[in-house]
Design goal:
- The complex is a heterotetramer, with two copies of chain A (261 residues) and two copies of chain B (312 residues).
- Chain A is α/β, with parallel strands linked by helices.
- Chain A has three domains: 94 residues, Beta Barrel (Elongation Factor Tu (Ef-tu), domain 3); 106 residues, Rossmann fold; 45 residues, Ribbon (Dihydroorotate dehydrogenase B (pyrk subunit), domain 3).
- Chain B has one domain: TIM Barrel (Alpha-Beta Barrel), CATH 3.20.20.
- Chain B is α/β, with parallel strands linked by helices.
- In chain B, strand 4 and strand 5 form a beta hairpin.
- In chain B, 63% of the residues are buried.
- Helix content of chain B is 28%, strand content 18%.
- Chain B is built from eight helices and 15 strands.
- In chain B, helix 2 runs parallel beside helix 3, helix 3 packs parallel to helix 4 and helix 5 runs parallel beside helix 6.
- The longest helix of chain B has 15 residues.
- Classes of the chains: A alpha/beta (261), B alpha/beta (312).
- The interface between B and C is large, with 74 and 75 residues.
- The complex binds flavin-adenine dinucleotide (2 copies), flavin mononucleotide (FMN) (2 copies) and FE2/S2 (inorganic) cluster (2 copies).
- The site of one flavin-adenine dinucleotide has 24 residues of chain A, from strand 4, strand 6, helix 1 and helix 2.
């Protein structure tokens, strides 16, 4: 982790509520792994005050660029849209622990909700590079928000889409789709991000099927480097509960240990 | 001009420069960022005697010019601290100031005695802003008599430099500062966070899980600078200024107000290299104004003609 | 949804809406900007018995998220006030709350009696953040017993609605608030400015002529919201929230924390139309959340599960 | 006085340290007088927090524009330079009391230091319109800073320039120039802005010559509309000292009454 002042190569609106930023990462010598994140200063001045955490969305080793996909939420993300191609962005990272892909996992299931797709897309990219088959369920409010579908398909993933707009995104229906996927594919591990309800579903599914699972969590952050203990969550171990830092031990955790509220 | 001297003294501590981290906003996790020996001292997060879980999330929220936190001294306990935290700094020469929190005066003394015996520890900062569980629940640092007793008991059990970290949530910080000085404190940290609150108007819920938290960052700097100035008028032991320092100018402002050293907390969250930038900036300032020794600057405020009046 | 009701009551005062100016940040000079009858009340600058010159310039300086001021109650005295200031509002229906400052408890009572007899005055706000010149120089509002005596004497001489404007520079605002309530105050203003200071590092001079001043603006809002919440837990008379309100969300935050009304000070310097925008914004919020009466919102904070712990 | 959100027609650097802004003022129906000022929000966000006061530099009644000339000093003026032509600027005014030109004053003397010229230029413009002869002494650090010279000459003013760069700006030399001017012209009133030292000189001169004088003062402001009493200065009346507000009773005052420190 370091503070970098990197050139923005593009920063454009990709749908109603989402923006996409490409940054020149040639300065970053550290390895960046899917599931890791950067803490970004959204504006020069002291307003907004804190940095904002964003997962790495794509890592392009050849072009030496990294990409972020972000949802406009409040002041920070609004200001982030003001940064123009050619300008610099102050990013701090890479931070945290990313996803793990075990060699024996030849087929994996991704379940992403909303902007959670930004986090899982990087994993799908990595999976493709390791010739791991990805089956992905993407859930969103509207079809307009299902923006990374093509990106994932480009990585060879088999993508199922569910939305409120189509009335297909309820947990029961997603569970049915998962059941169907398990009938067709020998899923070795499950990954999820972006929704408590869907994470609980995935937790149940991976437990029932007795396969490993991983989850990328979000929590409000202070330092993003493990010193302030703002971003904790609980892991249930056999005999005790452990408090861990999303920014340091996470944001990716063992799905079967995370205590979901 | 020759390189100005930045070194300052607090009790038995010789600091190569006046800049150090604020407790709770620093840790060995920052090792990759810069050489800790560049700092005047290191101050790890406050420790409690027994392991503690800390408060409900969200533990931080952003406000105009700062943030509110209510971490709740998440701590792995004293044993872990002695075995793992202190040794993590053993390769550094810069002094380590151990910040401690406790539930009773006796517990402060007990912890100070144990920590005071550690060779890895050069000084102890008493975080007396925590509630006195054996008293009425008010923070120790809100009562001059209790603060006096606390510092005195601690001074009796250790020879290490003792710094009392005051709470700013008081009517008269001078009174508490005087009590600590009289009890033998070697230095005063002015100050901890101000008690604060923020509410999400859409959910009508507090933005902090614990409802109340402490505000830090530039928003509080003018209040802290005032307190440093006030304490300087009535105390002669060194003051460590703390609260809202974002850059070298802020640190210098506190030094001029009367601080011998300056702690940097929240700034490191926004600019992880903040402390290094501040040290360089302070040195550049001394050069610019041809000040050979930073000690000349401490409390050297120029007041044209003093008027005291209603400030409201 | 039908138009929500914004009217609130403080003592005998019926306000058509909860938004009013903070003393010292409003005057008849603003007449050209908007219709004063749109405000819940008008509150002119604090007045003293005798004319007073005020403090040395500079009297204001900017800080991160706010400003420091030390005007020093520049006042033309009570006679001028009765002859010129109060009559300036005679064409408006909105109640006038007269803010008074004094050097002794007796002077507060004397002034309240005179002002209380004015038909143009509906309520009196006691600015008890000024130093007690007959006491130890500390502000009246820093001492619960003195605050109690002060409010009690004033209540004895007038039937007008009495609001005590508390100083936030205290260890326990609840204690002072309780004392004022017990003495018969009809309402509590939480709060005046926090004592603060800023130094120009280049000249090494204080940025305020009077050295210390009071900080206002968004920087202090989280501290004030906390105090409103704290006072609401222990008092049942209406609270007027004051400190850092810049927009409707800020006002609503204070109302949810427990304020019945909200004063707007510094915001008017940046947005002269701020109070009108806030009134409109509060009404829009009530509509959005289908709240028919603003009184439902007062103190209606949703606390998921309360944990009290060390906030440091 | 009102809050206006006006279009910036141009905002450009005119010398090392000075910028010039032209604003579409067609919305402003109130009369704007030389010596009055506007309180300007230099940036959208809350940083810097307060507005900044700027004198009216030129009033173009036909084009319906107003102009400001400003010196880069700190955060506020730096941020003001970010506003681009076509964007809006939030200005509050016109504020305060401006200069008075009595009908019998056919020749006047202006003494401006630094950015004080911005304030006196508007007066020179007004004087030209009323066929009043202007003689102006402009003082600045460097010749580069003497930017309004041509503007003033354009209004028909006779301009004397003094600078530190040329070693001509000391008070003694300025006094000599004034003496020479008085020999040549029948000066009926003196106006000054921008320097304590030169204001004192002008105070002395107008007193000695027994002619009226006016001064435009600057003071740190809170409200800029007369309610907060931040911006006071003293006027010496025959029998008492009066505390007046620079933003309300000023910024232009009777030079012979102002108490200069
Ligand atoms: C590890 C991690 C990875 C993330 N990756 C992405 C991503 O790839 N794309 C994306 O669009 N968003 C991502 N988020 C969420 C993103 O950080 C928030 O949406 C963003 O901080 C909102 O800032 P704001 O100022 O726009 O919103 P506001 O709601 O105004 O923010 C107010 C405060 O709350 C904090 N906050 C609000 N929402 C969140 C959240 N969900 N998590 C943590 N803090 C929050 C902000 O950081 C800020 O301090 C991630 C969060 C985490 C913790
Ligand atoms: C009536 C009046 C008319 C003015 N006209 C002009 C003009 O036409 N052109 C021009 O360049 N400048 C003018 N000034 C000065 C101008 O207001 C300041 O230079 C400006 O406020 C500096 O802001 P800053 O943030 O760049 O500097 P900073 O020094 O960072 O400002 C810090 C704070 O001090 C205040 N401040 C600093 N200098 C002054 C000053 N001289 N007067 C009042 N407040 C000050 C600022 O407003 C701000 O609140 C005028 C001032 C007044 C009072
Ligand atoms: C996240 C966080 C955790 C903190 N934890 C502690 C702590 O454990 N002990 C302590 O004495 N102060 C703690 N503080 C207070 C800081 O040490 C410091 O007093 C305060 O933040 C003001 O300084 P700053 O504005 O530079 O951050 C904490 C502050 C923050 C922001
Ligand atoms: C310039 C100025 C003058 C003030 N004068 C007074 C005063 O005369 N009496 C008083 O009770 N409060 C006075 N105050 C305090 C305000 O009424 C208010 O309590 C404080 O500014 C916090 O509110 P704000 O953040 O909305 O400004 C003054 C504040 C300012 C900024
Ligand atoms: S954000 Fe500070 S420990 Fe995670
Ligand atoms: S700035 Fe408020 S009275 Fe002049």
């Amino acid at each position: 982790m370091q503070v970098y002042n990197l050139e923005v190569l593009s920063n454009v609106k990709v749908s109603d509520r989402y923006w996409h930023m490409v940054v020149d990462a040639s300065e970053i010598k550290e390895e960046i792994k899917p599931g890791q994140f950067f803490n970004i200063k959204c504006a020069d001045e002291s307003f907004p005050f804190l940095r904002r955490p964003f997962s790495i969305y794509r890592i392009n080793k050849v072009e030496k660029t990294i990409e972020f996909l972000y949802l406009i939420k409040g002041l920070g993300t609004v200001r982030l849209t003001d940064i123009k191609a050619g300008e610099k962005v102050d990013i701090f990272g890479p931070l945290g622990v990313g996803f793990t892909l075990e060699p024996e996992w030849d087929t994996i299931l991704l379940l992403a909700r909303g902007v959670g797709i930004a986090t899982l897309a990087a994993l799908a990219q990595e999976a493709a590079q390791q010739n791991v088959k990805c089956v992905a369920i993407l859930s969103a409010r509207s079809n307009n928000d299902l923006l990374a579908t093509e990106t994932l398909q480009g990585f060879g993933a088999e993508v199922y889409k569910v939305t409120e707009e189509d009335g297909t995104s309820d947990v029961d229906n997603v569970e049915k789709i998962i059941e169907d996927i398990f009938k067709e594919h020998d899923i070795k591990a499950g990954f999820t991000c972006g929704s408590q309800r869907l994470s609980k579903l995935m937790q149940r599914v991976t437990k029932n099927k007795d396969i490993p699972g991983q989850i990328a969590l979000e929590e409000h952050m202070g330092c993003a480097m493990g010193v302030c203990y703002a971003c904790v969550c609980d892991l249930q171990h056999e005999d005790h509960v452990e408090s861990v830092r999303v920014c340091k031990e996470g944001p990716v955790f063992d799905l079967n240990k995370v205590v979901l509220s | 001009m020759k390189k100005p001297s930045l070194s300052v003294q607090i009790g038995k501590l010789n600091l190569t420069n006046p800049i150090m981290p604020a407790s709770g906003a620093f840790g060995a996790e920052m090792e990759g960022l810069f050489d800790f020996d560049k700092l005047g001292a290191v101050v790890p997060k406050s420790i409690t005697k027994y392991p503690r879980g800390g408060n409900t999330t969200p533990r931080v929220c952003e406000v105009n010019g700062g943030m509110i936190n209510s971490i709740g001294i998440q701590s792995k306990g004293l044993d872990y601290y002695l075995e793992h935290i202190i040794p993590a700094y053993k390769d550094y020469e810069t002094p380590l100031i151990a910040s401690i929190s406790a539930d009773s005066i006796d517990e402060y003394a007990e912890m100070s005695e144990i920590i005071g015996n550690e060779t890895g520890v050069s000084g102890i900062e008493l975080n007396i802003s925590c509630p006195n569980l054996k008293g009425d629940g008010k923070a120790f640092g809100m009562d001059a008599a209790i603060s006096h007793e606390l510092v005195k008991k601690v001074k009796n059990v250790t020879d290490k430099t003792i710094i009392a970290k005051l709470t700013p949530n008081v009517t008269s910080i001078q009174e508490i500062a005087r009590a600590c000085e009289e009890a033998g404190a070697d230095g005063l940290n002015v100050a901890n966070t101000l008690l604060a609150m923020a509410i999400d108007v859409h959910t009508r819920q507090p933005k902090i899980g614990n409802v109340l938290g402490g505000i830090s960052g530039p928003a509080i700097k003018p209040i802290i600078v005032r307190m440093i100035y006030q304490v300087k008028q009535v105390c002669s032991i060194p003051i460590i200024g703390c609260g809202g320092v974002m850059n070298a100018e802020d640190a210098i402002e506190m030094i001029i107000a009367g601080a011998t050293a300056v702690q940097v907390g929240t700034a490191s969250f926004i600019k992880p290299m903040a402390m290094i930038e501040i040290i360089n900036g302070v040195e550049a300032y001394l050069k610019e104004y041809e000040i050979e020794d930073i000690n000349e600057l401490i409390g050297d405020i120029h007041i044209p003609s003093q008027v005291t009046n209603c400030n409201a």
